[in-house]
Amino acid sequence: MVSIDNYDFKGKRAIIRVDFNVPVDGEGNVTDDTRIRAAMPTVKKVLAEGGAVILMSHMGRPKKNPDTKFTLEQIIPAVEKNLGVKVQFAGDCMGEKAAEMCAAAKAGDVILLENLRFYAEEEGKPRGLSADATKEEKDAAKKALKEPQKEFVKKLASYADCYINDAFGTAHRKHASTYLIAEYFPQDKMFGYLMEKEVKAISEVMEKPQRPFCAIVGGSKVSSKIGVIKALLDKCDSIIIGGGMTYTFAGALGGKVGKSICEPDMFPVALEILEMAKAKGVKFVMSPDALTCDQFSEEANTKEASVMDIDPEWEGVDIGAGGKAAFREHILSCKTILWNGPVGVFEINKFATGSKAVADAIAEATKNGAFSLIGGGDSVACVNKFGLGDQVSYISTGGGALLEYIEFGDLPGVAAIRD
Ligand code: AMP
Questions:
Q1: Nearest to 33 by CA among 68, 71, 73, 81
Q2: Which of the residues are catalytic?
Q3: Is the pTM of this model over 0.85?
Q4: Other beta carbons within 10 Å of 369
Q5: Atom of ligand 1 nearest to the CA of 316
Q6: Which pLDDT score, from 0 to 100, does residue 302 have?
């Protein structure tokens, strides 16, 4: 496999799939440039080695072409500021102009293509179907998009001599720019630095973790994390369950959960997970108590209760003092810690102290030598909210991608480069 560090970029045009799906305000200003910054080492490397760079990305979920709200033109100042190099905008990712600009690209040039998702071909998802379209109609529309998608990929590939995928956040998608394009560059495809770092951190945790290895899985619902929890049961020594899904487990075990978020249709799955954990010898750690509230706001009255016995009109929104102590003690006894999903409604300060206790314990364990990996938008926001971002070992930029990597042990975007 080619690596970005031993590839000769001199005189070559590199098409780089980056993740420039950044938030912008009403005036088109980038409000958080983390993802742009994260892509810079790769772009700078190609330029420093005498190559030309063609950047491609998606932004948002446009439904037509063009869709000015999602134009990548608005992020050019933010890219130029981070790169220190002028960026030429192609105005489209298809068409004559983009092709001509890419063909004429010289060493040191940086060209930005327009939002790939202006074209349905990028995702391979048909547009314009009526809401009541039948399955047959949907299948036919998808089939009809196959040939145009091939042409789309071929055209993107024709712009460059080599392909770099540095968009970990979309590596779980089999899209034109993240997956299909790789086959046009059998000897000239590689990971960018960000992808390399992400893959290394996650595979280190999943393949050869220092033990004990504990995964903390929080968030709102069991239903969205079943696959991940089951996969983790094969890898971890223990699982800490937090957040809204606590009450599905408590309910399945016969507890009274009041108005807490709870999925009764998931009770059999919750019990199956508990059985699996027992059979595999994986310790299952749940908070014995909950912080409950009478309304979902900063003004709420709160009180602690057993997770198995919450008052009918009250709702569990965070772990209680017993949970904080139990989670802390357990986290400090582990050498590898993976955290996905807050253990409470951390967006409301009153309900954030449990997630803060978890973040603090992870920072402390990391200081004591444990490896900690935080991933998934909400837990990253959580760690950053408490100012602990630089006190954990690795923060993943991918939410969905990280979870799918854990669940399936690989990602299409990773396999397309590697295989
Ligand atoms: P997820 O996207 O599944 O990781 O869920 C993250 C969301 O779960 C956050 O927005 C939290 O506010 C929410 N959450 C965490 N704990 C609870 C809870 N006890 N009740 C309701 N929502 C929760």
A1: 81
A2: 35, 221, 377, 400
A3: yes
A4: 8
A5: 19
A6: 98
- Taking the CA of residue 344 as reference, the ligand 1 atom at the shortest distance is 16
Ligand 1 center–CA 118 separation, angstroms: 32
Write down the pLDDT at residue 398.
84
Nearest atom (ligand 1) to Cα of 260:
20
Q: Does ligand 1 lie within 6 Å of residue 317's CB atom?
A: yes
- Ligand 1 centre and the CA of 338: distance in Å? 17
CA of 341 relative to ligand 1 center, distance in Å: 7
Q: What is the pLDDT of residue 380?
A: 84
Please give the pLDDT value at position 377. Answer: 66
Positions of the chain with pLDDT lower than 70, given as ranges: 377
Give CB contacts under 8 A, 24+ apart, made by 389-395: 391/363, 391/366, 391/367, 392/362, 392/363, 392/366, 393/201, 393/366, 394/197, 394/201
pLDDT of residue 188: 98
Is residue 192 within 8 Å of 4, Cβ to Cβ? Answer: yes
